[in-house]
Amino acid sequence: MESGIKYEDIVQATVSAIQRAETELPDDVVACLENAEQEESSEIARSHLQAILKNTGIARRHSVPICQDTGIIILFVEIGRKLSPLPDIEQALIEGVMKATSAVPLRPNAVHPLTRINSGDNTGDGLPDIKYYLNNSEELRITAVPKGAGSENMSILKMLNPTEGDSIDRLVLETVRNAGGKPCPPVILGIGVGGSFDKAALLAKCALLEPVNDMDEKENALLKKVNSLGVGPMGTGGDTTALAVHIRTAHCHTASLPVAINIQCWANRHATAVIGGNGKWNII
C-alpha cells in the first residue's frame, strides 16, 4: 500500500523546518532572554542582551538567519508506526538540506574532517546527522536543529568513575568557566548522564530540545551555581551566564559513569515539521 506522504512532501517540509529554525528563535527562548534583560544588574551585560533581542527581531521580520553560523543540520525524525510505507525518506531529507542551503540561504559548513574540502551544500558523509525514532502515531515529525561550532567546540564528554557522581556539578562549572565567552553566552546546557560513551552525548543533545523553563529542582539549583560564576552575556560579566540547564539520564554499566555536557549558545534554534498521513504538513 502506497503512503499518502510523497517524496516531495518530505523534501519541502524539511526545507521549511530548517528555514523556521534558522530565522525564528522559539518563543520560550525569546521570553527567557527578555526576562534576563529585565533582571540583569550589569549595564554592559544588559546591552548585550538588548542587542541579541534586537537581532532576533530583525531575523524574524525579514526571514533571514539569526546567526552567520547557520551550523550543521541535525534532524530528529519520528516515524509513526501507523503510517503506510514511506518513500526514500533519507534521500528526501538530504535533498531538503541541499535545497535549504540555497533557499534560506545557509552558509556551507560541511567539510571533510581531514582535507577540509567543503561539499558546498551542507551534506556529506554523515551529514545531515539524522536520528530516527518510532512512535505509535500516524505522523512523520522532522525536527531541524542547526548546531553552530562556537558552542559545540566547548562541549565535553568524560567517563567518570562510578563513585564520582557527586563531582558532576563541579565538572559542569569547570566546563562553563573554561569556555568563558567562546560559546556566546548566555548558554543553555544539555547534560547527559549514563548510558554508553555515545549514548551520553545523545542524551545531552536531546536535552537541549526541552522547553527552556521546564526545569526540576536539581536543574534549577545547578543553574544558580552556573550563573554565580559571573561569566555573563558574551563573557563580559553579569548575572546571566546560562538561561537553562536540562539533564537527561540513562542506566549505565555498573563500572562506568559517562557524563556529556553539550553547550548551546543563546540561539537555541529548532523547529518541527509535522506531516500527516495524507501528506499535509505544518511547522510547530
TrEMBL record:
Keywords: 4Fe-4S, Iron, Iron-sulfur, Lyase, Metal-binding. Residues 12-273 form the Fe-S hydro-lyase tartrate dehydratase alpha-type catalytic domain. InterPro entries: Class-I_Fumarase/Tartrate_DH, Fe-S_hydro-lyase_TtdA-typ_cat. Coiled coil: none annotated. Pfam families: Fumerase. It comes from the Archaea. The keyword Metal-binding applies. One of its GO terms (molecular function) is lyase activity. NCBIfam families: PRK06246.1, ttdA_fumA_fumB. Belongs to the class-I fumarase family. This is Fumarase class I alpha subunit. It comes from Methanohalophilus euhalobius.
